[in-house]
Write a structure and sequence with these properties.
The complex is a heterodimer of chains A (285) and B (281). By secondary structure, chain A is an all-alpha fold. Chain A is 73% helix and 1% strand. Classes of the chains: A mainly alpha (285), B mainly alpha (281).
Chain lengths: 285, 281
């Protein structure tokens, strides 16, 4: 008998884990999505009925729309602020370590806690930031941000972006730092202003790290609901109800595993399309 | 044209980046500082309008309340959960990554791709399958279930991170040990692992933090106070009518503390590892 290669031997535990912890649940996800699997009827094969029911459900389309709004909101806010901060830190000589350390800190806060912190700061009854809005004259009364559908979505986006900006900042800063400084000097000699060099050197040459950040941020904001859970839990009137809540409701409220798994498959397909784009881009350089 | 020149003048002024950074740093750090200060207020003061920033009177009321709540137990659960997950993940990931990196075999490329692919699966998608499995295995509402799912979420990425590191590990060191009569396994334990300790530690800390921060699986799979980790336990102070803001603030600080400490102390290694790991998504 041939000996098992040493490398395979070392990877064996990992392979077993991969099969048991990923492949097995994944195969369950797909198979259950084709079953009528609730606590009312006997379990039977259901074909594509779960999917058809989901596609005919208004709540699904609403949650998909909210997910996209949320995702685009978090990604654009994170990217714009992240790039501004990275460009600013790349320009300064002194205190750059201090700023970097402080700016990274929100990364350390668990998302679910970040939701609670922002819920407190923006609370119409006790929130410091809400009071600041009154002080600077944005409104006469404290605003109940969590009662207004649009404002509730915006606050969720802020709470989520707050923990994601540090990552974008670090990634883009590394990208900017790798641009050779003589390029800037040459451009300055030719009379280019700082705005010109930012537009024609900084942005194009750190494009790959910015794009990586954009894709990763959008992927994570697509699939995490922690911050929304602790801020509004989908409310008011389902204004912040994203796809994840739809899935969880099938498990906790309706006990319909078949429908829940079908939502899970749809999420997986959507994310795979995203990731395919990311991998394609990264492989191309 | 003139307006543009003025803008250019303003942007190019050397003080501008400092100003921009100061404003944003205040915005980014203020939530942490405000919540820290809030934890020293009396509960009457947390409900006062207008809200105060610095407590009028520093009290440890909130901390006393937290100590007598289920939070210490939740803290213990979080520590057990994060430490066990980290140990298991490193135990599997270190040999896997080393084997794939230095002794590639038929199918090792495919294996790496499967690790990558398994990261693409959103954890939320597998929530219901895991729930069904654990309910069959009678593991619902146990720390074991949480350790299993967190291992699933962390280990593929840690393999990727460590494989990247082992790829850069000098082959001469390994060859020297082998020539001196060390076995392949002995080389791994006596040469490679000790030399790679920083990378392994960084991977371990990252696993610890991810597990510590995990919330959705924890809230769905557990149902009693004595099994909750911190991220779920914090909701003890969120009532239907009233939120106990000062105690909640104290718990928020506790929950964020390990990561803040790690980030400040080992910034370079962790940030590098996290960024590399995320790109390998």
């Amino acid at each position: 008998m041939r000996k098992i290669p040493f490398g395979l031997l070392l990877s064996l535990p990992g392979i077993i884990f991969l099969l048991v912890l990923v492949l097995y649940p994944l195969s369950m996800l797909f198979s259950v999505s084709f079953l009528r699997y609730d606590y009312v009827h006997p379990v039977t094969f259901y074909g594509f009925t779960n999917y058809i029911k989901i596609f005919n459900n208004r709540v699904f389309w609403l949650s998909l729309k909210n997910t996209i709004v949320y995702c685009v909101g978090v990604t654009s806010m994170t990217t714009i602020i992240g790039v501004i901060l990275a460009a600013a830190v790349a320009r300064i000589r002194r205190f750059s370590t201090v700023f970097r350390t402080l700016l990274i800190l929100p990364w350390a806060v668990p998302l679910v806690v970040s939701g609670l912190i922002w819920r407190w700061m923006l609370d119409p009854g006790v929130g410091v930031y809400n009071y600041l809005l009154v002080l600077i004259g944005v409104s006469k009364q404290p605003i109940n941000l969590f009662a207004d559908p649009v404002l509730a979505m915006i606050t969720c986006i802020i709470a989520d972006s707050w923990t994601k900006i540090p990552f974008m900042f670090v990634l883009v800063l590394a990208g900017i730092k790798s641009i050779p400084p003589d390029l800037y000097e040459a451009a300055r000699v030719d009379g280019a202003s700082m705005i010109d060099t930012f537009r024609h050197i900084t942005i194009p040459l750190s494009k790959s790290s910015i794009l990586t950040g954009v894709l990763i941020t959008s992927m994570f904001s697509f699939r995490t609901i922690d911050a929304i859970w602790s801020m509004t839990r989908g409310g008011p009137a389902k204004a912040t109800y994203v796809l994840g809540f739809d899935l969880i409701d099938y498990l906790t409220s309706y006990m319909d595993f078949g429908m829940g798994c079908a939502v899970g498959v749809i999420m997986l397909v959507l994310i795979s399309m995203f990731s395919g784009l990311l991998i394609y881009y990264l492989l191309r350089g | 044209m003139k307006a543009r020149d003025v803008i250019v003048k303003i942007v190019e002024h050397p003080v501008v980046p400092y100003l921009v950074l100061t404003v944003f740093t205040v915005l980014m750090v203020s939530p942490i500082i405000l919540i820290f200060l809030n934890s020293f207020k009396s509960s009457a003061e947390t409900f006062a309008w207008p809200p105060t920033i610095i407590p009028k009177r520093f009290t440890l009321e909130a901390y006393m309340r937290v100590i007598s709540s289920p939070i210490p137990m939740n803290l213990r659960n979080s520590v057990i959960l994060a430490l066990s997950t980290t140990a298991i993940v490193l135990l599997i990931a270190v040999p896997s990554a080393y084997g794939i990196s230095k002794y590639p075999f038929r199918g090792s490329k495919l294996l790496m791709l499967s690790y990558l692919a398994s990261r693409i699966v959103p954890p939320l998608s597998l929530l219901i399958p895991f729930y069904m499995l654990f309910s069959q295995l009678k593991l619902l509402n146990t720390l074991t279930a949480l350790i299993i799912v967190n291992t699933y979420m962390c280990f593929p990425l840690v393999v990727w991170m460590l494989k990247g590191f082992f790829d850069e590990f000098p082959q001469e060191l390994i060859d020297a040990a082998l020539i001196d009569g060390c076995s392949k396994l002995g080389t791994m334990f006596r040469v490679v692992i000790p030399v790679s300790m920083t990378a392994i530690a960084a991977a371990g800390i990252i696993t610890f933090l991810w597990t510590w921060n995990e919330f959705i699986y924890a809230i769905i799979l557990t149902s009693s106070k004595d099994v909750f980790p911190m991220t779920v336990g914090i909701f003890y102070f969120v009532g239907d009518e009233v939120i106990e803001w000062n105690s909640l603030s104290a718990v928020a600080i506790f929950t964020s503390l390990p990561a803040i400490v790690f980030f400040v102390l080992f910034q370079k290694y962790i940030v590098e590892g996290l960024v590399k790991g995320a790109i390998k998504m």
